[in-house]
Design a protein that fits this description.
Helices cover about 20% and strands about 20% of the residues. Helix 3 runs parallel beside helix 5. The longest helix has 16 residues. The radius of gyration is 24 Å and the shape is elongated. This is F-box domain-containing protein. Pfam families: F-box.
């Protein structure tokens, strides 16, 4: 029975939970507080390794040795949350290359840590976050810098996976062996440049695809999906040719008419959602092509769109998705004033949507964010 005062009166299980919110090096340092605290950190429910910009240990060698030792000393830890975040990943790679070493050493270490946590039955990790960015090299440059091994994730406990600055592959995107995975986030991640990858996550409840590099991934069926945010501004499914009339750029004639075979990339997989945000750059054509086979969004109540969907003099994309959202209650149009002004000058004057009254009569709220 714990004795003393203050935090010392708390049982070990509560202290394990509290220590799980600390960064790893801070958690380990608690071992010097008292005899009782000597081994408490080994059973912390969270592992948070945050390194870079001089914040933690400094050198790559010290970081690698610390994390390797940490994982060896916690083989039976009831780990529920794991966060590995590098804010100086690019600097370390550059240092290795300048010293004549290969960056594969660093990549091998990080991959080992990631897959060791995933493979540990005793850890039972439910939340896993992995972030590697290069903003320390060039401010504003957040190119994906860490390529994960070509392996599939197999976990009976994982419920949330968040990736930032990671290069993914075909095998990794198969989450069919993660029956409890409900929340999936890809921020600033690199998909394949040459072939379209598929995301298979049948148990998802929420999905975030933000700042995608490479070809936009195809979404498989997600029957339990409730909320999704998809941004395709930086994807490679784009064309910058002025007044292009290729089958990808100028296909508005076929919007919603089900012509050709069903080649939906995003919209079909998102069709079960209740809350959607669909953001695209002006040159991207993924959504435009998907509208050829626009599904019925039978559960969609909340929808956020940007100016891509309501170009001056052409509201057909907006009309199409509204026609296929029979129970929509709230529509938000997020419009950049400068972009909208330039498009108006280029396209001409605004015209009302055909049949707008019939389409919008079921809406309760319409908002415009400028």
């Amino acid at each position: 029975m714990p004795t003393g005062s203050g935090i010392d009166v708390l049982p070990d299980e509560v202290l394990h939970h509290i220590l799980g919110f600390l960064e790893a090096h801070e958690s380990v340092r608690t071992c010097v507080l008292a005899r009782r605290w000597r081994h408490l950190w080994k059973s912390a429910t969270g592992l948070r390794v945050v390194a870079g910009n001089g914040e933690f240990l400094g050198s790559l060698e010290k970081v690698c040795n610390f994390v390797d030792s940490l994982l060896r000393h916690c083989p039976a830890s009831p780990l529920h949350t794991c966060e590995i975040r590098f804010t100086s990943f690019g600097h370390w790679i550059l240092t290795l290359c300048e010293g004549g070493e290969s960056e594969t050493r660093l990549l091998r270490h990080v991959n080992t840590w990631f897959w060791r946590v995933m493979a540990s039955v005793s850890c039972q990790v439910q939340v896993l976050r992995l972030r590697a960015c290069c903003t320390d090299l060039v401010p504003g440059d957040d190119d994906p810098s860490l390529a994960l091994d070509k392996r599939s994730v197999d976990s009976r406990h994982l419920t949330r996976l968040e990736l930032y600055g990671i290069e993914v592959n075909r095998r990794f995107l198969d989450f069919s062996n993660c029956p409890l995975l409900e929340h999936l986030e890809f921020r600033n991640c690199l998909f394949d440049y040459d072939s379209r990858l598929r995301i298979c996550a049948p148990s998802l409840v929420s999905l975030l695809l933000d700042y995608i590099w490479g070809l936009t991934p195809k979404l498989e069926s997600m029957p339990s999906l409730v909320k999704a945010v998809v941004t395709t501004e930086d994807c490679f499914d784009s064309c910058t040719v002025a007044n292009c009339h290729c089958e990808f750029c100028d296909n508005s004639y076929s919007i919603g008419d089900d012509t050709g075979s069903n080649g939906s990339v995003l919209l079909k997989g998102l069709s079960e959602a209740k809350d959607l945000a669909l953001i695209s750059g002006p040159d991207a054509y993924t959504f435009k092509v998907d509208l050829r086979w626009c599904p019925i969004f039978s559960k969609l109540k909340i929808l956020l769109l940007n100016e891509y969907w309501c170009l001056p003099d052409d509201f057909r994309a907006l009309v199409c998705i509204l026609e296929h959202s029979p129970v929509l209650e709230k529509l938000t149009l997020e419009i950049s004033c400068e972009k909208h002004r330039q498009q108006t000058e280029r396209k001409g004057t605004l015209r009302p949507m055909e049949g707008s009254a019939a389409i919008l009569e079921h809406l309760k709220i319409i908002e415009e964010d400028l």
